């Protein structure tokens, strides 16, 4: 057995599908019985959907011992790809028919993506200091639900995640859990890394799976009656078909402002049956537009810390103007209406990224003149030229700047 295991991870032969499943069974048999209560963190993406459907099938078919309770926590960011959401709803129906406790985990109203962006006026997230989205719309709601679960069960649960490193990373011992590494979904690594160990222990039973096995399971095994009859083909479709599958594709929120390209959505909308989602491709350019100085305010200079000293980043750009927020709100509503008009006429899945309650809350926050902390709305617009102030308090008058630019 030892020699065979060495071969699996380090030798020339790649893991076969049955061997991958067998290793998953063994990991669940080894660690599963240590906890009475299991939970599955499910993002709706390929890795966590494969994990969820496989684990439930293994339990239902008696291949692993049934835990006392199983709770499925579906993370709804409100921005998931349309086919993923459609598949998730079908899968949730199946799970409920099996008597499994399924909970939809969503951020509180004011923390949701569009409410925070357009109601509070915080600019779109970026890869630098303003990376507010993953924690706020994925991790924190999951943590809150986990706290609730812990209170209900009175003990730690075993949290099963879809973290997957694949064979090569296993071989290289590069088990780095981060957002979006090696084709993993945004948030998956974070679930493994950041969920409090006081509330749960985590297990990633598909850690060793190669991406081709994920596709194989979602496309050809899981949809069969003998493996649970799951609607997982649509999950594979969300990644844009065979070409994307070869590339170890990943997907996150539609229009993710942190991704360089909206690859998954672009690939998806090339397919005739999903072409009606094309208006959603306008989200990403809209975020770029929102980041421009003319859509934002700027600190006028002289901003101080609590101790009275000047902050390092004088005249920093900040929140979105009210005009920009209202314009973006109209754009999002128009995109959604355009998609849903075709969806209704053709019987295709609808998009739901901004519901009437969220729209009403955004308008209410705007009417209440809501700004992020340390901003009042009285600051100048960021495209208005000002004297430049430095963190030591020195000022370079705009007139001198213009003279030197002209020279
Ligand atoms: S997919 Fe993009 S927008 Fe969504 S939470 Fe992750 S980084 Fe943020």
Automatic annotation (TrEMBL):
Gene Ontology molecular-function annotations: catalytic activity
Entries under InterPro entries matching the protein: PAPS_reduct_dom, Rossmann-like_a/b/a_fold, Sulfate_adenylyltrnsfr_sub2
Gene3D superfamilies hit by this protein: HUPs
Residues in the signal sequence: none
Occurrences of domain Phosphoadenosine phosphosulphate reductase (ranges): 39-219
PANTHER family: PHOSPHOADENOSINE PHOSPHOSULFATE REDUCTASE, SULFATE ADENYLYLTRANSFERASE SUBUNIT 2
Name of the protein in question: Phosphoadenosine phosphosulfate reductase
Protein species of origin: Hymenobacter rigui
Taxonomy of the source species: Bacteria, Pseudomonadati, Bacteroidota, Cytophagia, Cytophagales
């Amino acid at each position: 057995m030892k020699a065979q295991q060495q071969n699996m991870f380090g030798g020339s032969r790649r893991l076969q599908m049955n061997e991958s499943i067998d290793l998953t069974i063994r990991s669940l048999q080894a660690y599963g019985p240590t906890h009475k209560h299991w939970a599955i963190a499910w993002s709706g993406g390929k890795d966590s959907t494969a994990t969820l459907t496989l684990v439930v099938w293994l339990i239902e078919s008696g291949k692993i011992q049934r835990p006392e309770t199983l709770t499925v926590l579906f993370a709804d960011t409100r921005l998931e790809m349309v086919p993923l959401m459609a598949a998730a709803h079908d899968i949730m129906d199946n799970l409920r028919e099996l008597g499994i406790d399924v909970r939809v985990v969503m951020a509180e109203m004011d923390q949701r993506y569009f409410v925070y962006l357009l109601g509070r006026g915080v600019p779109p997230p970026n890869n630098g200091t303003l990376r507010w989205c993953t924690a706020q719309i994925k991790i924190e709601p999951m943590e809150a639900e986990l706290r609730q679960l812990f209170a209900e069960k009175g003990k730690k649960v075993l949290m099963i995640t879809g973290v997957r490193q694949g064979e090569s990373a296993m071989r290289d011992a590069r088990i780095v859990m981060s957002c979006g590494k090696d084709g993993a979904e945004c948030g998956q690594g974070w679930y493994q890394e950041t969920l409090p160990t006081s509330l749960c222990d985590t297990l990633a039973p598909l850690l060793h799976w190669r991406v081709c096995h994920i596709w194989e399971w979602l496309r050809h095994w899981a949809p069969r009656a003998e493996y649970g009859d799951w609607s997982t083909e649509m999950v594979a479709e969300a990644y844009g078909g065979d070409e994307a599958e070869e590339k170890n594709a990943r997907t996150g929120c539609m229009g993710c402002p942190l991704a360089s390209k909206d690859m998954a959505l672009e690939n998806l909308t090339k397919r005739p049956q999903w072409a009606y989602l094309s208006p959603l491709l306008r989200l990403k350019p809209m975020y770029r537009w929102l980041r421009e100085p003319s859509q934002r305010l700027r600190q006028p200079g002289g901003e101080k810390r609590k101790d009275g000293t000047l902050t390092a980043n004088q005249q920093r750009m900040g929140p979105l103007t009210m005009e920009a927020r209202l314009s973006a709100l109209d754009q999002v509503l128009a995109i959604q209406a355009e998609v849903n008009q075709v969806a209704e006429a053709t019987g295709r899945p609808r998009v739901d990224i901004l519901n009437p309650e969220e729209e009403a809350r955004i308008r209410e926050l705007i009417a209440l003149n809501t700004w992020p902390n340390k901003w009042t709305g009285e600051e100048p617009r960021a495209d208005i030229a000002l004297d430049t102030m430095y963190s030591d308090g020195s000022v370079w008058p705009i007139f001198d700047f213009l003279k030197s630019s002209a020279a």
